[in-house]
Automatic annotation (TrEMBL), chain A:
<dbReference type="InterPro" id="IPR008972">
    <property type="entry name" value="Cupredoxin"/>
</dbReference>
<protein>
    <recommendedName>
        <fullName>EfeO-type cupredoxin-like domain-containing protein</fullName>
    </recommendedName>
</protein>
TrEMBL record, chain B:
<protein>
    <submittedName>
        <fullName>Fenitrothion hydrolase FedB protein</fullName>
    </submittedName>
</protein>
<feature type="transmembrane region" description="Helical">
    <location>
        <begin position="72"/>
        <end position="97"/>
    </location>
</feature>
<keyword id="KW-0378">Hydrolase</keyword>
<feature type="transmembrane region" description="Helical">
    <location>
        <begin position="453"/>
        <end position="471"/>
    </location>
</feature>
<keyword id="KW-0812">Transmembrane</keyword>
<feature type="transmembrane region" description="Helical">
    <location>
        <begin position="318"/>
        <end position="338"/>
    </location>
</feature>
<keyword id="KW-1133">Transmembrane helix</keyword>
<dbReference type="GO" id="GO:0016787">
    <property type="term" value="F:hydrolase activity"/>
</dbReference>
<feature type="transmembrane region" description="Helical">
    <location>
        <begin position="293"/>
        <end position="312"/>
    </location>
</feature>
Length: 123, 477
C-alpha cells in the first residue's frame, strides 16, 4: 500500500515537472489570428476548380466565403449545421461566426464533395 | 444527406484537430519518464515471482472460452441482440439511403461496435449475453437437435485465423466500403449466414471461441475489465466480482500466433485509420510515388492519369491495411528476439512473443479510445431520435424523433488532453504488465529487468507513433 502511494506520488511529480517544462505560457492576447478569414471558390461540373482545400482560422473569427457554382447546389457546414442554397451561374457570399473550435467539413450536397475543410483552432 | 466518399473516415463526423506539438512532446516525454519509474518500481518490488512458480490459472479457461450457457443477461439479452440485428438489417435494406438518417449505421458502428468495446473493457464480458449470432445459433439449436454440436471437428491449425479474416473485412468495410446502410445490411446478412454455416459445420463452442469476430474481440477486451462474472451462491446465479486486470493479463496464456496477429491488428488498424487521413500519408502516394515511380505507367499528365491513379490509390491503401499486422508482427518479433538474445532461455522467440502479447492489449485499447471516443459524444446519442424513426420515413414512434438534433461538437483542447492522457496511461499499463510477465518468465530479477529493455523501446515506439499520428495535419480530400 505504502509502495503504491509512493509510486503514484513519483508519477505525479514526474508529470508535474514535465508540465512545468513543456506547457507553453498562456498568451496575453486571446486571439492572435485574423478577425476575418476570406476565401473564394469556383465549382464546375461538381468539382472544385479554385479555392483552398483547407481553411484555417481561430475561434471567434468571422468566415467569409464566395462561391461560384455552375449548377444549383447546397452548401452544408458540418458541426455548425448551417446550409446555404447556391444558384447555378451566380456567385454567393456566405458569412459565419466561428464560435466553435474543431475540424469541420464544408460539403456540397448535390455534387457530393467536400468543398473545403475548416479548421478552427481554440483560443 | 449524402455520404462523403472521399472524406468519410468511416461513419460519423470526427471534429478533432491535430494535437499541438508541445502536447505531443509532453506525451512522449511522459511515456519515457514514467516507463523508468515503472521499471524501478518493479525491480524493487517484493511481489515478483520466480519462473519456477506456476502462475495461478484461475482466469485462464473462463477467459478464453465463451460459456454457452446463457450469461448474465439471460434469454432477454439474446432476444434484444437478435432484435437489434434484425432491425439493423431491415432498416438498411428498406430504409432511406442517407447514413445519418438510417438507424442501422449508428446502431452498428457506434452503439454496438464502439459502445460494446468500451463496455466490455469496463464491466467484463457482457457481450456473451447480447451476441445476436450466439443467440441465433442457440435458438436454432433448441429446435434442431445436434445443430450446436457441429458435423466436423474444428481444424486446430486454423486457430483464430477466421476471426482475423472477419476483422480485416470489417475494417475494410469501415474505411473503404460503400458507407451506405444498404451495404451494411448486406454485409451483416452475409456474416450472419456464414456464422450459422460455421456453427453447423464446426459446432458452436469452437466457432464462437475461434472464428466469430466479436466474441474473440470483446473477450480479449474484457480481460482488462476490473469485473469478472462467475456462478456463485446457493442459487448458482451469475454474479460479478472485483478483480485486478493486471493480475489477469499477467496470468493469461495466448498460445496461437493467429491470436497474436489479431491483437496486433487491433493496434495496426487503428493506427492505419489515423495515418491514412494525414497529409503525410497522402503526399507519400500523390507527391512521391506518382511522379517518381508511377508516371512511367500512367503518364505525366496528372489530369489524364487521375482516374487510374485513384483506383490504384484504393488498392495501395487496402494493401497497407492488410499488411499492417504482419509489419507489426515483424517489428514485434525482432524486439522479442532481442530480448531472448539478451537473457537466453529455453523458450522459442514465437513462444515468448505469444507470452508477452497480453501487454499489448492496454496499448490497443488506448489507441482505440483516443481515436474514436468522441464519436460516443457526437453520434451515439443520435440513436435516441433514430429509435423513433429507424427507417427514416418520418415516423415518431416513441416521441423522441426530434431530440438532440443539434450537433454536440467536443471542445478540441479537452479532446487533445484525453487523447494524450489515454495513450500515455495505456503505455504505462503495457510496460507494467510486460514487467510482471517477465518476472514470471525469467529465472532472476536481473534477467527480468534486462529483458524489458527491448520491450521498453518497442512500447515507446508504439506510443510515440500513436501520438505522432494524432499530431499530424489532416489531409484534404
Amino acid at each position: 500500500m505504502r509502495r503504491s502511494v509512493i509510486f503514484l506520488a513519483v508519477n505525479v511529480v514526474v508529470l508535474g515537472a514535465l508540465a512545468w517544462w513543456l506547457v507553453p505560457e498562456p498568451t496575453d492576447r486571446p486571439d492572435t489570428g485574423a478577425d476575418r478569414v476570406r476565401a473564394a471558390f469556383e465549382v464546375q461540373d461538381g468539382r472544385r476548380v479554385t479555392g483552398p482545400p483547407v481553411l484555417s482560422a481561430r475561434k471567434g473569427a468571422v468566415l467569409e466565403i464566395q462561391i461560384a457554382s455552375d449548377r444549383d447546389d447546397e452548401l452544408h457546414m458540418h458541426g455548425y449545421d448551417r446550409t446555404w442554397p447556391l444558384r447555378g451561374g451566380e456567385t454567393r457570399t456566405v458569412t459565419l461566426v466561428l464560435d466553435q473550435a474543431g475540424r469541420f467539413s464544408a460539403e456540397l450536397h448535390h455534387a457530393g464533395i467536400e468543398l473545403t475543410a475548416l479548421e478552427v483552432r481554440p483560443q | 444527406m449524402l455520404p462523403l466518399p472521399a472524406v468519410a473516415h468511416s461513419f460519423g463526423q470526427v471534429y478533432r484537430l491535430p494535437v499541438p506539438v508541445w502536447l505531443y512532446l509532453y506525451g512522449a516525454c511522459a511515456a519515457l519518464a514514467l516507463s523508468f519509474v515503472v521499471m524501478v518500481f518493479c525491480l524493487t518490488a517484493d511481489s515478483g515471482r520466480a519462473a519456477a512458480t506456476p502462475a495461478p490459472s484461475g482466469h485462464r479457461l473462463r477467459s478464453v472460452q465463451p460459456p454457452l450457457a446463457r450469461g448474465a443477461i439471460g434469454w432477454g439479452g439474446a432476444v434484444l441482440g437478435i432484435g437489434m440485428l434484425g432491425l439493423c438489417i431491415a432498416s438498411g435494406l428498406f430504409g432511406v439511403a442517407g447514413p445519418y438518417a438510417n438507424f442501422s449505421m449508428t446502431a452498428f458502428w457506434i452503439v454496438f461496435l464502439l459502445g460494446m468495446t468500451y463496455s466490455v473493457a469496463l464491466v467484463g464480458d457482457i457481450q456473451v449475453g447480447l451476441n445476436p449470432w450466439l443467440g441465433l445459433a442457440e435458438t436454432i439449436g433448441r429446435f434442431w437437435q445436434g445443430f450446436l454440436v457441429g458435423r466436423y471437428r474444428y481444424p486446430a491449425r486454423l486457430g483464430y485465423t477466421p476471426a482475423l479474416g472477419f476483422y480485416m473485412a470489417l475494417v475494410w468495410l469501415e474505411l473503404f466500403g460503400p458507407g451506405t446502410p444498404f451495404a451494411l445490411a448486406i454485409a451483416l446478412s452475409i456474416y450472419t449466414g456464414l456464422n450459422l454455416v460455421g456453427v453447423w459445420l464446426t459446432g458452436a463452442r469452437d466457432w464462437f471461441r475461434y472464428a466469430e469476430l466479436f466474441s474473440v474481440m470483446f473477450r480479449l477486451l474484457a480481460l482488462m475489465a476490473p469485473l469478472a462474472w462467475s456462478h456463485s451462491g446457493p442459487a448458482h446465479r451469475l454474479r460479478p466480482r472485483l478483480r485486478s486486470p493486471f493480475a489477469v493479463l499477467r496470468e493469461i496464456r495466448f498460445q496461437r500466433v493467429s491470436l497474436l496477429l489479431f491483437i496486433l491488428f487491433m493496434l495496426s488498424s487503428t493506427a492505419f485509420d489515423g495515418l491514412h487521413e494525414t497529409q503525410a500519408w497522402r503526399r507519400l502516394f500523390w507527391v512521391e510515388l506518382y511522379p517518381n515511380v508511377l508516371s512511367g505507367w500512367v503518364g505525366t499528365n496528372p489530369v489524364a492519369a487521375f482516374p487510374v491513379l485513384l483506383r490504384w490509390y484504393g488498392y495501395w491503401q487496402i494493401l497497407w491495411l492488410l499488411a499492417s499486422p504482419f509489419i507489426y508482427l515483424a517489428v514485434y518479433v525482432v524486439f522479442v528476439a532481442l530480448m531472448r538474445g539478451l537473457v537466453g532461455g529455453r523458450r522459442s522467440v514465437m513462444a515468448l512473443a505469444c507470452r508477452f502479447a497480453p501487454a499489448l492489449l492496454p496499448i490497443a485499447l488506448a489507441y482505440h479510445l483516443s481515436h474514436y471516443y468522441t464519436l460516443i459524444q457526437t453520434q451515439a446519442i443520435k440513436i435516441v431520435p433514430l429509435a423513433s424513426d429507424p427507417f427514416g420515413f418520418g415516423w415518431n414512434l416513441f416521441g423522441t424523433a426530434d431530440w438532440w438534433q443539434r450537433t454536440n461538437v467536443p471542445e478540441p483542447s479537452t479532446v487533445w488532453h484525453v487523447q494524450v492522457g489515454v495513450i500515455v496511461l495505456g503505455h504505462i499499463a503495457g510496460v507494467y504488465i510486460s514487467h510482471l510477465i517477465a518476472l514470471d518468465v525469467f529465472t532472476t530479477r536481473r534477467h527480468a529487468a534486462i529483458s524489458q529493455l527491448p520491450m521498453l523501446v518497442l512500447m515507446l515506439a508504439f506510443t510515440v507513433a500513436g501520438l505522432w499520428i494524432l499530431a499530424q495535419p489532416i489531409g484534404a480530400s
